[in-house]
Amino acid sequence: MIFNYLKLTVFILSVYFLNGCSDNNQNESTLAASKPAKLLTIKESNLEQFLRYPATVKPQKSSDLSFEVSGIVKEVLVTESQRVNAGDVIAILDSRDIKESYNAALSQFNIADKEYQRMLKLMGTNAIAKNELDKRRSDKEVAETKLKTAKKALEDTTLKAPFSCLIAELNLKEKQVVQAGSTAVSIISDGLMEATINLPASVIATAKPQSASNTAAFVTFVFDPSNKLPAVFQEANLNADATSQTYQVKFAFKSPENLNILPGMNATVWFKDPTSTLNDKGLVQVPLSAIGIDNEKTYVWKVTPDTGTVSKQFVTLEKSATKNAIIKEGLVSGDVIVTAGIASLYEGIQVHAWSEKQ
Fold first, then answer.
1. Residue 140 to residue 131: CA distance in whole angstroms
2. Radius of gyration of the chain from Cα atoms?
3. CA 129 → CA 13, 113, 117, 170, distances in Å?
4. Would you say 188 and 62 are in contact if contact means Cβ atoms under 8 Å apart?
5. What DSSP designation does 328 have?
6. Do residues 64 and 183 lie in contact, with contact meaning Cβ atoms separated by under 8 Å?
7. pLDDT tens digits, residue range 125-170?
8. CA dist list (Å): 12 to 2, 7, 22
9. N or C: which end of the chain has fewer CB within 10 A?
10. Are 285 and 320 a contacting pair, CB within 8 Å?
């Protein structure tokens, strides 16, 4: 029985080693049949030509609003985090006393105005002296000034949003006594945000001021890194920070409706490297040695990942290509192409990555 067990063990081991050798021979045979080639995996060139720096976010516009008159809060029409449009009413003060003052001023103005108009008619008949008319005109102007002051005080009992915004902080509640000039509500611009970064002198030195406003840039957040929010250069502080020797640069961007971008959040600003030679549109860049021509059409040899075989992939080039070919259409991120020796390739041939050991 022991003898039979040994025979079975020897048989299993023999099969295992034979299969192993067969697999190794097959792999070596496949590798030998394929052609070594320099390969390039297409990446997002627009990211490769961009620099990135951490940024802090704040609203592009913010304001602390206050009543210009003192009084008792009659009604609060908003809540914190609420979006409001320019001109929307935020809160109203009890205006009874101020309205009485306005009505009194209006009445005094009407009397002064009528008296002035009466004197003006009498002046036409030479029934009164000119200085009497001047006195009535002065009385009217004083009454008019008091009316304008009373009207503004009445208008100031209503607090309105100066621009479309978010209610960041509300310091009001009904029946509360507020003093003129004390902060009643803090607002921030709705969707318009500002990202601030600090750039080293080496980057500032290579920037082109004349095209700064057209700098291609975008902002990303760690909680949604694939969402690239277009950003626009706003301004740069040309005085370096004494400690870090960096320069503060600001970019503006619009917060998307599906995200709550709030002040103080950390972000990343990406902008085109001033020293980059890539196309401003961020198109794919490949070596000219990878480009072939077939009946006046340009192509590259694209590698099928599973089989390692190549096939022609026709592409459209940018006319401004110099040392490298800039691809407008035909390739996407993740594609693998052959970058050298393309003249010896043909449809369906297998290739593998060339290395110095081969």
1. 14
2. 39
3. 135, 18, 15, 59
4. yes
5. E
6. yes
7. 777 788 888 899 999 999 999 999 999 999 999 999 999 889 999 9
8. 16, 9, 15
9. N
10. no
Euclidean distance between the first and final Cα of the chain, in Å?
A: 52
Nearest by Cα to 150 from 90, 89, 108, 92: 108
Instruction: Kindly compute the dihedral angle of the four CA atoms of residues 121, 124, 128, 129, in this order, to the nearest 10 degrees.
Output: 120
The whole-angstrom separation of Cα 20 and Cα 27 is 11
Q: Evaluate whether 42 touches 339 at the Cβ level (below 8 Å).
A: no
Question: Cα(53)–Cα(172) distance, rounded to whole angstroms?
Answer: 39
Instruction: From residue 142, give the alpha-carbon distance in Å to each of 112, 120, 128, 131, 155.
Output: 9, 17, 22, 17, 20
Give, as one character, the DSSP assignment of residue 288: G
pLDDT tens, residue by residue, 48-72: 567 889 999 999 889 999 999 999 9
| 192 phi, psi to nearest 5 deg | -90, 110
Distance of CA 183 to the CA centre of its chain: 30
Determine the Cα–Cα distance for residues 49 and 51; give it in Å rounded to an integer: 7
Alpha carbon distance 83, 79 (integer Å): 9
pLDDT of 106 reads 96
- Bridge partner residues of 340 (DSSP): none
* Residue 91 bridge partners (DSSP): 76, 159
Between CA 57 and CA 264 the distance in angstroms is 5
**Prediction pTM value:** 0.54
203, 205, 209, 210: CA torsion to nearest 10:
-110
What DSSP element (H or E) covers 141?
helix 130-155
Distance CA(288)–CA(265), nearest Å, equals: 43
Report residue 89 as tokens. 């009413």
